[in-house]
């Protein structure tokens, strides 16, 4: 009887050992903490003041990390201000490296129509004439040709040849106030009083838009072309002295 009990206790002991051994789970490696250094903490090497040298990481893990990174979203194309058109075909060219690929079209011939709004010759002697004109088709071109008056002048000079002549006085017969004969020359020259001015004013503001001419401060050029290139209601004043002037005003490809 006692021996049977011993056998039962032995069997129960063996069964308990077997059951306890079946519940043992093998230990797993602890995951490495995040960071470049072991344990996730940066430790200085004693006596050096620097970090410990790192071991190269597994390239397979890096490749896995790259493959898991999100794909960047492409930016949408903004073509709302452009219209797509076919491209120009470019053929092979064995010519020189520097060549002109621009295609020039033959220029369209423009036929200009000139409409005169004023064409007259004035004889001015210190007075002014004025006209008003509403310019709706600029530019307004103004040509003027000045013919200044010429003055006949008599110029005196002393002859540089011949003998001296003069009155004699006293017993010695000395010559008093010796001189040669007077010479008078007739010449024709531009009158110093000749001038011409054409002035254009804005009738709304009174501002001077154009001021040009001949003589005074305008120079000695007798032929000039000036223009007005802005819309407006203008007053055109022409004044002068001792001049005949031909004035032509016209517009191009417009209606006066």
Strand percent estimate: 35-45%
Mean pLDDT comes to 76
> Counting H and I runs of at least 4 residues, what is the number of helices?
2
Distance between the termini: 147 Å
Rg, Cα atoms, Å: 56 Å
Strand line-up of the largest beta sheet: 1-12-3-10
Which segments are poorly predicted (pLDDT under 50) over 5 or more consecutive residues?
34-41
Shape: rod-shaped
Output the structural class: mainly beta
CATH topology assignment of the domain at 114-151 and 191-252: Jelly Rolls
Architecture of the domain at 114-151 and 191-252 in CATH? Answer: Sandwich
Describe the structure.
There is one protein chain. With 256 residues, this protein is mainly beta. It has a domain at 114-151 and 191-252: Sandwich (Jelly Rolls), CATH 2.60.120.380. Helix content is 12%, strand content 39%. The protein is built from 2 helices and 12 strands; from the N terminus they run H-H-E-E-E-E-E-E-E-E-E-E-E-E. The chain has helices at 2-22, 59-68, and strands at 114-124, 127-135, 140-148, 150-158, 165-169, 174-179, 182-190, 195-202, 208-214, 223-228, 232-241, 243-252. The strands form 4 sheets. The protein has a 4-stranded antiparallel beta sheet, with no helix packed on it. Strands 2-11-8-9 form a 4-stranded antiparallel beta sheet, with no helix packed on it. Strand 5 and strand 6 form a beta hairpin. It is rod-shaped and about 190 Å long. The relative contact order is 0.19.
